[in-house]
Amino acid sequence: WAHSLDVAAHMTFIGYNNELPDYLMRHARVAGLTHDGRTAAGGDTTKLVDFEAFNEETHYGELFEREGWPNVRDKHGLSEELLFETVNGRGVLGGMLDFADKLSYVAYDAYVHTGSLSLVFLYDDNEKLPVELHYTKGFRQVAEALVKNPLVCSIWDAVVVDIDRDVAYCADADRLAEFLRLRALLFRDIYYNPYAKSMEFVIGSVVMKFLYENGRITREELVEEDDEWLQRKIDEVVGQFPLSSIHSILNPRDVMKVETYKDIEEAVRREAELTEQGLYVIRESWGGGTGTGTKLKVEHDGAVVPFYEARPREAAEITSLMT
Question: Between 311 and 204, whose confidence is greater?
Answer without folding.
Answer: 311
